[in-house]
Design goal:
Length: about 400
């Protein structure tokens, strides 16, 4: 075991990291610095500070990173319309590089020789934390307790916590709570009955969006304004990135938007079932695609769609600070210069429907050409014959040769 004098722990105050804090003190006999990132989990932040104090921590960092999180991580990701495996909005994945960045910064600031996290040896987060940390500080030492200790079940963790007087939230049946991750973009749920992909989620599990069945019977229309691919106004009011996401979360959750139950392929090789609530993000990606539909050139839009799965996988797998993600981001951001305008959406019982989109200065939609009425010569329909014949040429040749 490497001699460690001081370690910076990514500390949420939950079951795993509270135990890790005590375990680091006992096993490594080192000073522990805690870092809690406020990225929108709200009431979890201050209890984390108090728990750290009770465990003898003298250097406690609790930092409000909500604006940085949305501005520098969530919004760039949404410019790419990123979805992992067609469904997952990457709520946990996109937070990890931000936390890794500040772990490395605080380690340098406090003279710590290691950082530590609570990700398990089976999951994606260990990869995300460590790849991003190594990119920012190639010499940093990482302590991953789940790869070292023998507390390899939720029951053992609860038992350890009770032995050491660490308060732990448990479920009503006395068992360990779901493994959860919360931030401004989403809440995720794993473990418990969710480990069987056939089981229905407990209706009481959901903490954010109401059930679509219980959502208001009256639809609500909203209007989002976009500048260079980012949502900047809601119903005419200019908002900061964090204010925007928070407002859309409130509206979306009210209407039952953003619940999803999926099985995904983890980077480490196994399949995993998770449930997610992403109300504001679900609205944002729908609106962003709508404004792109009238402002992006066809081939630019299609190229973005071709590259999106690769971009999403880079984030999911922990390569935010990798050169290939940064290269893609530069291209994506350049494509967003004309993505300006307004989108109108209707929210109703879990659904988000686009009811209008306009861009006064950057729209490529030409009503004089697409009209079914007289276009006064703006488009010569007879030109389509030659277009079709040229595109059919290789098919006609192959057909004559019996190749089709």
């Amino acid at each position: 075991m490497k001699t460690i004098k001081k370690a910076v722990l990514a500390y949420s105050g939950g079951l795993d990291t509270s135990i890790i804090l005590k375990w680091l003190q006992d096993q490594y006999n080192c000073e522990v610095v805690t870092f809690t990132a406020d990225i929108g989990q709200g009431e979890e932040v201050e209890p984390a500070r108090e728990k750290a104090k009770k465990l003898g921590v003298s250097e406690i960092f609790v930092e409000d990173l909500r604006e940085e999180f949305v501005r520098d991580y969530v919004f760039p990701m949404f410019r790419a319309n990123a979805l992992y495996e067609g469904e997952y909005l990457l709520g946990t994945s996109i937070a990890r590089p931000l936390i890794a960045k500040h772990l490395v910064r605080i380690a340098d600031q406090t003279g710590a020789d290691a950082i530590s996290h609570g990700a398990t040896g089976k999951g994606n987060d260990q990869v995300r934390f460590e790849l991003n940390a190594y990119a920012l500080n190639p010499q940093i030492h990482v302590i991953a307790p789940w790869r070292e200790w023998d507390l390899n079940s939720r029951e053992r963790l609860v038992s350890y916590a009770r032995e050491h007087g660490i308060p732990v939230e448990t479920r009503k049946d006395g068992g360990a709570d779901y493994s959860m991750d919360a931030n401004m973009l989403h809440i995720s749920y794993e473990g418990g009955e969710l480990e069987d992909p056939w089981n229905r989620p407990d209706p009481e599990m959901w903490r954010w969006a109401v059930s679509p069945e219980d959502a208001p019977d009256t639809p609500e229309e909203i209007e989002l304004g976009f500048e260079a691919g980012d949502a900047v106004s809601l119903n005419g009011e200019t908002l900061s990135p964090a204010q925007m996401l928070a407002s859309l979360n409130t509206i979306g959750a009210k209407h039952g938007v953003g619940r999803i139950d999926l099985v995904e392929n983890r980077f480490v090789g196994m399949k995993n079932r998770g449930c997610y609530e992403t109300p504001g993000g679900t609205i944002l990606i729908k609106a962003h695609r709508a404004i792109e539909s009238i402002t992006l050139d066809r081939e630019v839009a299609h190229l973005k769609d071709d590259l999106m799965p690769r971009y999403a996988s880079l984030i999911y797998n922990g390569y935010w600070f990798a050169p290939e993600r940064q290269m893609l981001q530069g291209m994506i951001d350049d494509s967003q210069k004309p993505v300006n305008g307004f989108v109108r959406l209707k929210l109703y019982k879990g659904n988000v429907d686009v009811t209008g989109r306009r861009s006064d200065s950057d729209s490529l939609f030409d009503e004089s050409i697409v009209t079914f009425e007289d276009d006064h010569g703006a488009y010569h329909q007879a030109d389509a014959e030659g277009f079709i014949k040229l595109n059919a040429l290789r098919l006609r040749i192959a057909g004559r040769k019996g190749r089709l």
